[in-house]
Amino acid sequence: WMSFEDDVEAILDLKQKRNAVILAHNYQTPEIFHGVADIVGDSLALARRAIEVEADVIVLAGVHFMAETAKLLNPNKTVLIPDMGAGCSLADSITPEDVALLRKAHPGVPVITYVNTSAAVKAASDICCTSGNAKQVVESLGVPRVLMIPDEYLARNVARETDVEVLAWHGHCEVHELFTADDVRQLRENHPGVTVLAHPECPPDVVAAADFAGSTAVMSDFVGQQRPARVVLLTECSMSDNVSVHHPDVEFIRPCNLCPHMKRITLKNIRTALQENRHEVTVDPAIAVAARRAVERMLAI
Ligand code: 13P
Ligand code: SF4
């Protein structure tokens, strides 16, 4: 406990000295989420709020694509990620060359890129989306067919909700692909009356078996507004930890999966990041212009 408090205090002090803010994703551990973060949220909220930041330094407590997005929106600020190895199986599933091949195979079909991608893949696409606005982005384009990359399950889950044809890639989130429809059946059997919320990165049969699906922020809002007696969040483990703090009256059932990338971020390496100004996230200027356009087009919706 000593060192935990010591790190929190040091980080709060360093934030002031360096005029820095910490943006933390909903999957960060409670001591980061509740202890040192200035701005928390889902991927969409972190991108939106990144535009408003006035500090000189942004520490992104999350994974690399989130830090890149923050940098795209703040080209003149220093953006740090405490561990460069915090990647994402979705971002790793596709390259700009893959996108070029897809465009050749589907001429004229717009490419919607999930934010869980590298800046180079974003630059090769027309517009970005997150799990919080995917359906809206698809429908905003006013076309009969779109490509939605790289998450196959997100694309198929969105396809169920719209008349637009959604062509998919074969990327998966290594955390959410582990949930099965059988898990949902067993949860309902073992915990009568449980409300099941699923992230749209889960396989479509899991989302179909759940009561409700949405981004991490949407799941959190659902619990706050509906106040289910017992709930399970089919997503990364820290979600329930963070959300349950505000809802002591709600029983959280916790089968969950850890994201090893999100868990690379710790109080210790956030402290070091601020002390030693590392690791700085940069985006090749040639890529940044087109990638920023795709993100800004999304934010304008
Ligand atoms: P959201 O917070 O946008 O729902 O994204 C979930 C996720 O897996 C981010 O890595
Ligand atoms: Fe990527 Fe899945 Fe981890 Fe999110 S939870 S960072 S989508 S691997």
Which tags fit this structure?
binds iron/sulfur cluster, 4-stranded parallel beta sheet, binds 1,3-dihydroxyacetonephosphate, Rossmann fold, metal ion binding, 3 domains, alpha/beta, 301 residues, 14 helices, metal-binding
Description:
There is one protein chain. This protein has 301 residues and is of the alpha/beta class. It folds into three domains: 2-87 and 263-286, NadA-like (Rossmann fold), CATH 3.40.50; 91-172, Rossmann fold (3-Layer(aba) Sandwich), CATH 3.40.50; 176-258, Rossmann fold (3-Layer(aba) Sandwich). 43% of the residues lie in helices and 16% in strands. It is built from 14 helices and twelve strands. The strands form three sheets. A four-stranded parallel beta sheet has the order 2-1-3-4, with helices on both faces. Helix 1 runs parallel beside helix 13 and helix 3 runs parallel beside helix 4. The radius of gyration is 19 Å and the shape is globular. The N and C termini lie far apart (45 Å). The mean pLDDT is 97. Bound molecules: 1,3-dihydroxyacetonephosphate and iron/sulfur cluster. 1,3-dihydroxyacetonephosphate (13P) binds at residues 26, 42-44, 116, 130-132, 173, 201, 215-216.
